[in-house]
Amino acid sequence: MAKQKRLLISLMLIVAVIMAGCSSNNNNGAGNATETSQATSKAEPTVKATGGSDEAFTIRLGGWFIDDRTFMQEFKANVEKKYKEKYPNATIQWDILLGATYFDRLKAELASNTAPDVFFHQNTVNQYAEVDYLVDLSDQPWVSQLSPGTRPATTVNGKIFGGTLGLSGAGVWYNKQIFNDLGLAAPATYAEFLALCEQIKAADKTPIVLGFKDTWTVGLFMSNFFSSVLNGIDPTFNKQLYDGEKSLEGEEIQALLNKVQNLTEKGYFNKTALSIDWPQSSDEFTSGNAAMIVQGAWLPGAAEENFTKKGHSRFDIGYFEFPDDNGFYSINLSPSETLSLNAKSKLQQQGKDLIAIIMNEDILGPYSVGNGSLPPLEGMNVTYSNTAMNEFLAAVNKGKTMYGFEAFISSSAETSLMETMTKIVSGAKYSPADLKDAQTKHEKDKATRVLPPE
Amino acid sequence: MERKWIGTAALFVLPALLLFITFTYYPFIRSLYYSFTTWDSIRKPVFIGLDNYAFLFEDRKMIAAAMNTFKMALFGLLIQNPLAIWIAVLLNRKFVTGYFLRAAVFFPVIMSLVVLSVVWSQILSYEGTLNLVLNQLGLSGWVRDWLGETNTVFITIILLTQWQGLGYCVIFYLAGLQSIPADLYEASRIDGAGAIQRFLKITVPLLMPTITIVTFLIIVGGLKLFDIPYILTSGGPGTASYTLALAIYNAAFRENNAGYSIAAGVVLMLIIMVITFIQLQITRRREVEM
C-alpha cells in the first residue's frame, strides 16, 4: 500500500513538473524571451510598482532587418542611448531574426502571448488590430507629426496602431561609370532601355544582375517591372485587378511576361540569376561586372558598405524606374517597417516611451539616410550623402508614386506569378496555364488581402 | 490482483497520454476543423466546407509537388534501397579500409543540412566547381545552372537527397547483415551454393525485417521531403522542385493560407498512411525468423 502511495505521489510530481514546464508564464512583463537571446539571463524584470524612470527591467524589441550594416548598428546604439536617458536601469533586448521567418515567428508569438513588448512588422496592421494584438497609440505626441504619406498605413478605423520608419521605394540602379564609358544615359522609354542593354552586353558586361535565390527579390523585380506599364495603361489598373474587372490572364500581364522572356532570351540577365542571393547580386553590381540592379533604395547604402569593406572600386550610382513604351514611369512607394506596441505587454508605458524615442527626428534622420527611405515625419529634412539617393528623390518628386500591383492581389496569386517569373528566367517558356493558375488563386484567396489605404 | 496491475499501468501511461493529448491529438483535431476554413492564422477562420480539399485537385503547384514527391519516393524505393543493400554487403566484408569506408559512407548523414546545401549550391551553380570540371574536360555543352533550370533541378535534388540519406540506410543494413550467423553461409558453401544463391536464399530472407524498416523510412522520408529543396531552390524555378511538404509550408507561411495548407497536410498524411500500410503488408509477409 505504502509502495503504491509513493508511486502515486511520484507520478503526480512528474505530471506537475511537466505541466508547470508547459504552462505559459504571464508574470513576466517582458514575455517569454527566446532561449538563445543574450539578454535572457538579465531578462527577469524587477519592475517597481511606481513605474518611475529608475526602475530596472528588460524590454523586448522584435525586428527582422536590423543587421550588421553600420547605419543599423548606429540605429541600435542611438535607441539604447536615448532609452537609457529615460530609463537608466532598463535593458533593451533586441529579438532579431533576419529574414522572412521573423514574421512567421511573430505570428506564433502573438498567438501564444509571448511576442516582444514592442515589435516591427510590415503590412499587417489591419489584421493585428482586428484581433486586438496592438495598442491604440493615437494619443502619442509623435502621431501629430506623421506625414500624410505614412499615416494611412497604420490607421485602422481612425485610430493609429503604429509608427512607420519611412516610405521605401525601389527601381533600377545603374553604374554611371559603365554608362559613361559606353556613352549611355538613363533610358526615357522601354525601347531605349532595350537598346542600352544590347550595348552593355556587347561590351561584355551583364546588363542586369538578378539575385533570385532570395525569393523576395523576385517579387521586387516583378513589382517594379510591371509598375510603369500597368499604371501607364490606367492608374486604377491595380484596383481593377482586385475588383475582377481586369485579369491576371489578360493581355497586359501577358505582354509584360513576354518582355521578361525577351530579356532572358537576349541574355540580358546574369546566368547565375537563380543561384545567387541579394548580397551576391549586389557584389556583382559593385564589383563592376553588372551595369544595373533592380533593388530597394537601400542599395546605395549597401553599395557604400561594399566599396568600403570589400575594396570594390568606387563609382557613382544613378537611378531610374523602368519606363513604359511611351516614356511614362511610376514608382512603387510603400510604408517600410512599422513599429507597434504589443497589447499583451506588461510594460505599456515603457513600450510607448520606446516607440516615442524611435519615432523621433534624432533617431529617424540617420536611419533614413542609411536605409534610403523617405522620412515619416512632416517637416523632417534629411540630407542624403550620395547622388543616387538624390536622383531617386528627384524621380519621386517628378513622377507618379503608388502602391505596387502586388498589394491588390492575393499572396497566393503573387507567389504563383513569382514562380512563373523564375520559370521564365530559368530559360523555360511560360504558358497561359501559369497565368490561369494565378488568376484562380487570386479569386479564391482575395478575401485574405487587405487593400492598401486610398 | 489483475485490476491493481491495470491501475498501476494506467498511472504509468498517464503522463505520456496527457502529453500526447495536449500536444498531438488536440492540435490535430483542431487542425481538422481549420482545414475546412479559410484562415490566415491571424484573424478568425471562416468555414468553407470542402472547398480547400476540392481546390487541391485544381492547384497546379500542388499537383506538380505531388508528382515530384512520388518520384522522390519511387526513386528511393527502386534505386536507393537496392544500392544501400549492395553497399552494405560490400562493406560487410573484411578488408583494410573497411572502417574508413563505412565512416565515409555515413559521413553525409551527420553533416548539417545547411552546410551541405551551401557546399552543394556552390558546386552546382553556373560558376561552380562541377561546371569548371566539365569545361576542363571539354564538355562545355553540358555546362548549366544545375539548380536553376526546370529540366535539371529536380533530378539534381533527388540525387543529392539519395547521396545524403544513403549512409543512414547502409548502417541499418550493415547491422542486419551482422546479425546473420556466419555458419549459415558456411553450411551453404559446403552444400555448393554460389554467391548469388547465398544472397537470395540466406541474406535477403534474413534481412527482410531490416528491409521492412528501411523501406518504410525511405518512403516516408521521400514523401515528407522538405529541407533540401527549401534551402536550395525554394521549389523553383517555377514549380519544378516543389515537394508536397514544401508546398504545404509555403501555403501557410508565404501565402498566409493556413486553412488550405492544413487541408493539404491532412491529405499528405492520408497518402503516407495508405502507402506505408501497403508497403508493410507486402514486406512483412516476406519476413522469416531464424
From TrEMBL, chain A:
Any transmembrane segments, and where?
none
Residues of the signal peptide: 1-20
InterPro entries annotated for this entry? Bact_solute-bd_prot1 (IPR050490), SBP (IPR006059)
Q: Which Pfam families match?
A: SBP_bac_1
Compositionally biased intervals (Basic and acidic residues):
434-448
- Keyword ATP-binding present in the record's keywords: the answer is no
Q: Give the compositionally biased regions (Polar residues).
A: 34-43
What protein am I looking at? ABC transporter substrate-binding protein
Q: What organism does the record attribute this protein to?
A: Paenibacillus agaridevorans
**Lineage of the organism:** Bacteria, Bacillati, Bacillota, Bacilli, Bacillales
UniProtKB/TrEMBL annotation, chain B:
One annotated GO biological process: transmembrane transport
**Is the keyword Membrane assigned to this protein?**
yes
Entry's transmembrane regions? 7-29, 72-91, 103-123, 153-175, 206-226, 258-280
Q: What is its main location?
A: membrane
Matching entries from Gene3D superfamilies are given as: MetI-like
Which named protein is this? ABC transmembrane type-1 domain-containing protein
Assigned protein family: Belongs to the binding-protein-dependent transport system permease family.
Q: State a single Pfam family of this protein.
A: BPD_transp_1
Carries keyword RNA-binding? no
Cellular component per GO, a single term? plasma membrane
Supply the PANTHER family for this chain. Answer: ABC TRANSPORTER PERMEASE PROTEIN, INNER MEMBRANE ABC TRANSPORTER PERMEASE PROTEIN YCJO
Protein's cellular compartments: Cell membrane
Q: How does it sit in the membrane?
A: Multi-pass membrane protein
Species for this entry: Paenibacillus agaridevorans
| Key words of the record | Cell membrane, Membrane, Transmembrane, Transmembrane helix, Transport
Q: Which residues form the ABC transmembrane type-1 domain?
A: 66-279
